[in-house]
Specification:
40% helix; binds pyridoxal-5'-phosphate; Aspartate Aminotransferase, domain 2; alpha/beta
Amino acid sequence: MKVPFIDLGLQHKLLKEELMDVVSGLIDSGQFILGEELLSFEKSFADLCGTKYAIGVANGTDALFLSMKALGVTAGDEIITAPNSFLASASSIFLAGAKPVFADVRSDFNIDPEEIRKVITDRTKAIIPVHLTGRPADMDSILAIAHEYNLAVIEDCAQAVCAEYKGKPVGSFGNLGCFSLHPLKNLSACGDGGVITTNDEDLYKNLLKARNHGLKSRDECEFWSYNSRLDNLQAAMLNIKLKKLPEWTARRRDIAAFYFNRFSGLDLISPKDKPFEKAAYHTFIIQTSKRDDLKSYLSEKGIDTKVHYPIPIHLQEAAKYLGYVKGDFPVTEKQSGEILSLPVFPELTDNHVEYVANSIINYFKK
Ligand SMILES: *Cc1c(COP(=O)(O)O)cnc(C)c1O
């Protein structure tokens, strides 16, 4: 049996006719930039996240970057994030002119609020908690710290659309929430895309201009800015996919529940949701000191797995100028050598999931 890590063809096969219809309609109408479909997607996405506003942008990295710009981040500011995230959580800070400062994570792969406290200085401007793997970060503690030190909070929700913390969707806690619609994310465009959520009307109005050259009307430019819009074609397809998202998320949660159940008693770590968390399972990660050996064993069995991520951001060549060294973030560093992401995409059949679980059980029993 072959089990891929993800199969986008399968997802689109079921929706192809509907997708092609809206694409064909738009090609006839020529409504490619800032059209009705985008407005409608933004409205539905804000509803999904329980926020007043959503702004479509070109990708998740721009969502983070433009959010920092909207908050007035400038040179000399420090912004705290997790070193075990996808690198864009940190590169966007650099691109906004600020300095990325890292705080280590907990056993559930999310940023540790106590570690955040330790790295706050009088230059700290904001915290970017990442809801990594699709599990919500410890928002109560993070918001309390932000309040205490008067810091902004930008949630990196790139992996976490539909995740909930204490009954509320992620993206509705911070000043701003940033989502990626990259093809590999839980809600994906047929190409690149991103969204920013907020309840703040001023930030919303600023971001509508900031993603569109700083234009406040067709001919009047208020400030120099970027061209970072979400394509109307993408929005039209996303409106179709959005209807499927609850079903897809439920399937991811079912697969995760099945894995948890089958893995109990095995010599591996796999953090479960706490009672007040509802993870979206962008990835399903297990942690074991036998990671590399298990990965090749599964590969021989036809099962594709990945590592998210093998090199922590603070140890990347690009981050050298920040002066971090090996040993600075022991939890992140240990995890990076032991974590393995299993297939968890919604189109997996029960047979596939069973086969993955059995192969892992067999590995640990051999
Ligand atoms: C994917 C991702 C991003 C970047 O999103 P893009 O749409 O690829 O620019 C940022 N942060 C995290 C945690 C991600 O997983």
